[in-house]
Write a structure and sequence with these properties.
The structure is a homodimer.
Chain A (H helix, E strand, L loop, with lengths): L4 H14 L7 H8 L3 H13 L3 E4 L5 E4 L8 H8 L18 H23 L4 H6 L3
Antiparallel strand pairs in A: 1-2
Helix pairs in contact in A: 1-3, 1-4, 2-3, 4-5
The structure holds a DNA duplex.
Chain lengths: 135, 135
DNA sequence: CTTAATGTAACAAAATTTATTACATAAAAA
DNA sequence: TTTTTATGTAATAAATTTTGTTACATTAAG
């Protein structure tokens, strides 16, 4: 997760929360985040497909928050934008090594536990909670 | 953390644990992990500087576990190999945007909380615990 | 019909990560 | 003392991932 996706997704959702009821453009969002609009649209696709966001095409179109921000939890969002293991990738150990060949199955369960614990922690905070910190 | 560093560090330490008392070479470790020996030595540098590992140069040299494996905790190890935020990087929002300009300080504290929770979870498991799963 | 928006593919550029080569240094053993 | 075998690390190359950009199809309001 050495990327900007979580930060970008949160930023998008906070803006949508602050402009609840209205439609704002990806251009506007991109201007606030300071990235290319296409990057924003790519992230919006994920949010839309997860049912968090509504998009309206054409003139007077734009984006709008679809789901209740008190029901959008940060862990859920993290899972959405990060499909990989939080603790990173795994090697492909030498199958001829009796120790190495057992490594990945044990790492996998450690990674799984860690991901779950992280998501549970993040789920304690909703988008509404987070956005409320921003005046 | 979209890299192999944590998996690599754990693998190294498990091998050192299994060969406790002996010196094993970075070449041997690399052979088990299936990576270049230089990658292993780079990681060993971090482990050595943190006092986990002892290295002996020259003929008959190699690596050996220095610290008691029941006192090496996974969270500590994770911190060692991952200096960045677990939840990723942050954008550089437009300072002219009243919402955007507040984003990073709030994200920073969320990131901090998440990192702490993750490390606490990982610290419940020691190297000894982890290695014991591997016969 | 014009205008202004999303949606996406295709490609380019940048940044990060891993692999490799080369060689200095150290220490044991012949 | 010389040879052998290790670590340590710099420098560079290659691969992969991430982000940026361009282009254009599609959609809908006015």
């Amino acid at each position: 997760m050495n990327n900007l996706r979580f930060a970008t997704a949160v930023h998008i959702l906070v803006l949508l929360d602050k402009f609840r009821g209205e439609f704002i453009t990806s251009e506007f969002i991109a201007g606030s985040i300071n990235v290319n609009p296409v990057v924003v649209r790519r992230e919006l696709k994920v949010l839309r497909e997860a049912g968090l966001v509504l998009s309206k095409k054409g003139k007077e179109g734009g984006l709008s928050l679809l789901k209740d921000p008190t029901c959008i939890h940060m862990g859920e969002l993290y899972k959405l934008v990060n499909q990989e293991n939080t603790l990173g990738r795994m090697n492909h150990p030498n199958p001829a090594c009796p120790i190495g060949k057992q490594m990945n199955s044990k790492l996998q369960s450690l990674f799984y536990q860690a991901d779950n614990a992280l998501i549970l922690t993040l789920n304690k905070q909703s988008l509404a909670d987070f956005a409320a910190q921003i005046v």
